[in-house]
């Protein structure tokens, strides 16, 4: 979701400031690079290292303000809830994408509403009433500080036109100063910025441009080896530390042929059940999916498979998400749901099908679907024309377009979990929870049954169509609510399924008929993270980091993917820097070649999943991992100059620049 440099004056000012740096004079930065340089500049005005976390509302507000934002207390509370303990640099970048910079036009419009004489000024008495009695109130001392600014006050009036101009200039000045500091300070310039990286100081002059890590994330391009060229400045980051452990794994085309999934010979005589589900990609990149309970009545040989669900009706043109990897972790319930034991996972593969064969005893099992996230990730794809969902016929009646009807049929196919061509209340509620966050109770379902086509108390395809048409009629043809539903189900404005991957699970047993029921739709974390870590620790290779006997890197490889897990047995948290720059034909779930992870004491965590970009070619996984101590605070003096508010933010930033007490513009706190 790239930010357009011309979207508003604030970002234009930032672009102008950035373009004056020595690097950008010779090689103009892309919009994405401009955005992340702005992020880094703002973050490093508050912290010495971007591996340091935001641990308070005050720090969040200060960093946002230095990025040209003007957040209200309501905005701050949206991102810093009572459950929030910390935010990292990645979280900060996500917030900046959502909260647009304050523009000069927006400021002028706000002030103009108070300009009773339409002369570009506001009486000090009116300004005082506004700032002390409305919205997030300021103190008398804070208002006096504003009206004492000589450049924007005269004859008992506040010149808001001059103020807005001064405010925009101040933003540009702050950003320019910070960027210049980054250019001069080589230590800062080589710093690892959270999960994001800074490009080389010198652009590659060759005809093929060197892609930035963010471009790699979007297009999954193969990384360049930089032979004979200046190395990325972040490559130097790893050289500052002692190399602790390094891996090189060469994977050929279908390298583990012996691990190919094969069906049991007598499977036609086994009893089978089936269920569908879906992976959904959230705004923050997290993946959620259905989770299941399976019951096995007696000890049996079991054959389980999971694969992407093909919805395409065109022969020879399969659904594009069939390349997404899928897996199923099987955990046995012992005494309670909280006590789950990892039994196995579907590590064998035959094309897009992943499976497992083995013996399971009687009992209750949890099936947790998983995808690495290497191929199911957000894509920045410009949509030239928004699809039409509804239209009015010759009689003025509202109807669904052919394209929208086709999409609704695909959605019906996905949410019809048992595949019987009907939607039960339980199946429909998964759809409702996903699209509206609410459930349909028995009474509402009875109303639905009375008004729409049902069969055996379940909604038919036609009933589902009519239900969506009713929603369109309720809004008099306004498609906005329909688009909310479509976006929640993973569709873009062109009605393409780009942020979801439906799948289908098949379970065979030779001695009894298995039973399966979808029970949750949750994030692929928590219990899944534990299961992945456990499987990698059981099956992977372990390497102790040099000089750190309590830090162990476990690496599991199959013919499809490689997973790295870091185990920290020490009493202290550690930061591990990962460098994948020498890997070839690889893509990882983080979308970056260089990043850092923080591992809590006495814990394990998934470091990364890696897959080949092109499965028909050899791929080389080369990962270098080094340790770092947790970065300290900047230790500089903090000066209180105000607190956040709808108008106070711009005032505070000016006070920050005018403050005679500041040691540098980056050290002042904006909360009282």
Automatic annotation (TrEMBL):
Cell location: Cell projection, Cilium membrane
An example Gene Ontology biological process: positive regulation of protein localization to ciliary membrane
Gene Ontology MF term list: calcium ion binding
Key words of the record: Calcium, Cell membrane, Cell projection, Membrane, Metal-binding, Phosphoprotein, Repeat
Bilayer disposition of the protein: Peripheral membrane protein
Pfam families recorded: EF-hand_7
CDD domains from the UniProt entry: EFh
GO cellular component assignments: ciliary membrane; plasma membrane protein complex
InterPro entries, sorted: EF-hand-dom_pair (IPR011992), EF_Hand_1_Ca_BS (IPR018247), EF_hand_dom (IPR002048), Miro-EF-hand_domain (IPR052266)
SMART domains, per the entry: EFh
Region (Disordered): 190-232
UniProt biased composition (Polar residues): 222-232
Location of the EF-hand domain: 102-137
Job of this protein: Component of the EvC complex that positively regulates ciliary Hedgehog (Hh) signaling. Required for the localization of the EVC2:EVC subcomplex at the base of primary cilia.
Oligomeric and partner information: Component of the EvC complex composed of EFCAB7, IQCE, EVC2 and EVC; built from two subcomplexes, EVC2:EVC and EFCAB7:IQCE. Interacts (via EF-hand 1 and 2) with IQCE (via N-terminus); this interaction anchors the EVC-EVC2 complex in a signaling microdomain at the base of cilia and stimulates the Hedgehog (Hh) pathway. Interacts with EVC2 (via N-terminal end). Interacts with EVC.
Protein name (record): EF-hand calcium-binding domain-containing protein 7
Source organism phylogeny: Eukaryota, Metazoa, Chordata, Craniata, Vertebrata
């Amino acid at each position: 979701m790239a930010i357009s440099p011309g979207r508003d004056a604030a970002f234009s000012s930032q672009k102008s400031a950035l373009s004056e740096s020595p690097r950008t004079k010779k090689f103009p930065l892309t919009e994405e690079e401009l955005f992340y340089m702005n992020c880094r500049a703002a973050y490093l005005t508050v912290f010495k290292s971007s591996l340091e976390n935001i641990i308070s509302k005050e720090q969040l507000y200060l960093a946002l303000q230095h990025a040209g934002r003007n957040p209200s207390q309501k905005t701050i509370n949206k991102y810093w809830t009572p459950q929030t303990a910390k935010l990292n640099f990645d979280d900060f970048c996500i917030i900046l994408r959502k909260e647009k910079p304050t523009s000069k036009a927006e400021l002028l419009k706000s002030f103009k509403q108070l300009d009773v004489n339409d002369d570009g000024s506001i009486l000090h008495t009116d300004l005082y009433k506004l700032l002390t009695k409305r919205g997030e109130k300021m103190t008398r001392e804070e208002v006096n500080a504003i009206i004492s600014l000589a450049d924007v006050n005269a004859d008992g009036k506040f010149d808001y036109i001059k103020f807005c101009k001064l405010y925009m200039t101040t933003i540009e000045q702050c950003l320019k100063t910070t960027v210049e500091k980054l250019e001069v300070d080589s230590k800062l310039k080589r710093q690892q910025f959270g999960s994001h990286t800074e490009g080389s100081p010198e652009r590659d002059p060759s005809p093929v441009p060197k892609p930035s890590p963010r471009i790699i994330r979007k297009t999954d391009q193969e990384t360049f080896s930089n032979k004979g060229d200046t190395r990325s400045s972040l490559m130097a980051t790893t050289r500052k530390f002692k190399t602790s452990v390094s891996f090189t794994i060469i994977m050929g085309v279908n390298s583990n042929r012996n691990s190919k999934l094969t069906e049991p010979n007598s499977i036609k005589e086994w009893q089978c059940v089936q269920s569908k589900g879906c992976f959904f990609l959230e705004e923050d990149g997290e993946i959620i999916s259905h989770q299941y309970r399976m019951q096995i009545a007696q000890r049996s040989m079991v054959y389980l498979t999971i694969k992407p669900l093909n919805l395409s009706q065109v022969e020879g043109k399969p659904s594009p998400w069939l390349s997404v990897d899928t897996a199923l972790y099987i955990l046995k319930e012992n005494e309670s749901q909280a006590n789950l034991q990892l039994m196995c996972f579907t590590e064998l593969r035959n094309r897009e099908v992943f499976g497992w064969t083995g013996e399971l005893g009687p009992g209750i099992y949890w099936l947790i679907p998983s995808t690495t996230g290497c191929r199911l990730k957000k894509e920045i794809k410009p949509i030239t024309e928004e699809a039409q969902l509804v239209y009015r016929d010759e009689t003025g009646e509202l109807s669904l377009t052919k394209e929208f009807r086709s999409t609704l049929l695909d959605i019906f196919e996905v949410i019809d979990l048992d595949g019987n061509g009907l939607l039960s209340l339980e199946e429909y509620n998964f759809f409702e929870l996903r699209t509206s966050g609410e459930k349909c109770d028995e009474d509402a379902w009875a109303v639905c049954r009375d008004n729409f086509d049902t069969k055996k108390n379940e909604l038919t395809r036609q009933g589902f169509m009519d239900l969506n048409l009713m929603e369109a009629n309720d809004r008099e043809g306004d498609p906005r609510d329909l688009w909310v539903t479509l976006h929640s189900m993973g569709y873009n404005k062109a009605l393409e399924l780009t942020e979801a991957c439906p799948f289908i699970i098949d379970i065979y047993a030779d001695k009894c008929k298995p039973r399966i029921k979808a029970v949750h739709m949750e994030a692929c974390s928590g219990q899944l993270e534990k299961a992945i870590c456990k499987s990698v620790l059981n099956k992977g290779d372990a390497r102790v980091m040099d000089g750190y006997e309590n830090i162990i890197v476990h690496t599991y490889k199959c013919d499809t993917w490689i997973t790295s897990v870091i185990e920290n047995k020490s009493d202290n948290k550690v930061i591990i820097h990962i460098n994948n720059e020498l890997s070839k034909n690889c893509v990882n779930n983080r979308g970056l070649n260089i990043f850092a992870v923080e591992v809590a004491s006495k814990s394990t965590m998934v470091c990364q999943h890696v897959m080949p970009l092109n499965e028909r070619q050899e791929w080389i996984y080369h990962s270098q991992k080094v340790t770092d101590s947790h970065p300290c605070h900047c230790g500089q003096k903090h000066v209180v100059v105000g607190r956040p508010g709808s108008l106070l933010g711009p005032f505070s930033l000016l006070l920050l620049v005018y403050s005679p007490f500041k040691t540098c513009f980056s050290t002042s706190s904006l909360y009282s």
